[in-house]
Amino acid sequence: MVIMATPLHCSETTAKPRVAVVSSPGMGHIIPLLELAKRLATDHGCHVSFLNITTQASAAQTKLLNSTEFPPNFHVINLPEVDVSKLIPPDSQIMTRLSIIVQESFRCLKSVLLDIGKPDALIIDLFSSHAFEVCKELSIPVYSFDTASTTLLSLSLYLLTLDKEIDSDIEFVNLPEPIRVPGCTPIRTEDLLDQVRKRKSEECKWYLLHISRIPMAAGVLLNTWEDLEPITLKAIRENPYYHNKASIVTPPIYTVGPLIKETEPITESGNECLAWLDNQPPDSVVFVALGSGGTVTSEQLNEIAWGLEMSGQRFVWVVRAPTEFDASGTFFNVGGDINDPKSFLPDGFLERTKEVGYVVSSWAPQSAVLRHRSTGAFLSHCGWNSIVESLSQGVPMIAWPLYAEQKMNATILVEEVGVAVKLAVDLRKGIVTREEIKRAVSLVINNGGNDDDDEEEEEEERNLGKVLRLKARKLKLSAEKALRKDGGSSYDSLTQLTNDLMVSRISS
């Protein structure tokens, strides 16, 4: 059902801005954009219309929007479902599929924006860049919300130049040296996001198209805070490359993170999980969750189970049915799968680990688990939302990147921020072995110690868990400071955005 926004009767010069927000499908984009929209409504008084793309929406997306309580100045507007079955090739990957869904869903965008009274701004995610053309016609400023790291944004803007400078037959991943993004730490080619690994692919063409439209935005909103990515933020604000008409002109940057769910509807199974955590010692549990779209093979699932069991550490594990070919296999149907862990976990695993482990089928209240005092580490796929959630709660990480830009994220966590250990893939077997999982879990949860310690083990490794936890907790404090209403950098950024929208409305 379409809920229409209430027309305003206040003075145009004093009324709070009216903002429309739209996200491409996928929980990794919808969750932070929804939190941003709620924050604009509750903390800054904006009148918000959240445009929901219903085409191929996952069960989790529908449940989230139907179960969340919104303030009276917040409205959800469902865009009509469209038939894309003949437009999307069967073998299409995520980027292509998302882009076509958004493109077709936006055929009604002009009429929707006019129906709600022509908002003062439209906030979009990267894959919704089709909105620029419509908003230009309506003279509505567009703000781009980046759901990934500032590092990925800076790389992406530089790839626009690199794509023109190097021969089209040379792949980015085959360049002889790391990519030297202006002002940033060089990025190893093996860490490049999946979408740009084959330059002639539809995925890469779509990605570069979306990125090329960023300079058209009135501003870029980032789900980060100043202390999390200081080097890259400084580069994108001050390095001449990003402000040169000959290369690219980057719009104003607003750091608005961390955007995490402060509250969420919790199911009966979720409450049971939290009750189990209540009975565990502080910082003793590793939370294992590979994201809303992440899956692994049967062989890999067995290795995780054995690795957790061999570590002897407490764990909460969100388990999904294995898929044999696609690491992002549940991206479009998250929340709709029905799992029985007994059918695909090793025989006897649940019984043998019942005193130290808690297995959850498909879904757990991630924000609440990470916030819990018993959670001492997060074994994650390194999606940006999960990183922001974990570090804003002071929880160190075990990095296991699966797809998209997650390899880059893992490298940032380990080498720049220093809050994670990275799981090593056995190249011969093509999996992360049980021994490697045991090693990493023991290092982080057990303060670096394990049964194999000897006198020659370096002090740094023995204390690694403590070091990671200390750094993560410092970031938690800085995240809390960024959100404070008395001078917090992220709070002030949204205040500035609100003021900018009011000034823009008056001047137009």
From TrEMBL:
Pfam families: UDPGT
Domain of life the protein comes from: Eukaryota
Alphabetized GO MF terms: UDP-glycosyltransferase activity
InterPro entries: UDP_glucos_trans, UDP_glycos_trans_CS
E.C. designation(s): 2.4.1.-
CDD domains linked to this entry: GT1_Gtf-like
Keyword terms, alphabetized: Glycosyltransferase, Transferase
Keyword Transferase: yes
Family: Belongs to the UDP-glycosyltransferase family.
Protein name in UniProt: Glycosyltransferase
Gene encoding the protein: LOC115720703
